[in-house]
Amino acid sequence: MSPRPVVLREKDKVSTTKSIMIRRRKDHIPLVNGEERLSGIATSSHIIEAMLPSEKIGRRVLGVEKLNRLNMQALGIADKNVVVSKPEDSLRSVIGAIIDANSTYSVVCVGEEIQGIVTHRDIVSLLAEKVEEDLPAYIIGLPDDPFDAELAKSKFAETVRFLKRIAPEIEEARCKMKLRDIEEERMRYEVDVSIITPYKRHVYTNSGWDLANIFDQMSDSLKKRFGHRPTRRRTESVRGTVPE
Question: Where exactly are the structural domains of the chain?
Answer without folding.
Answer: 2-124, 128-234
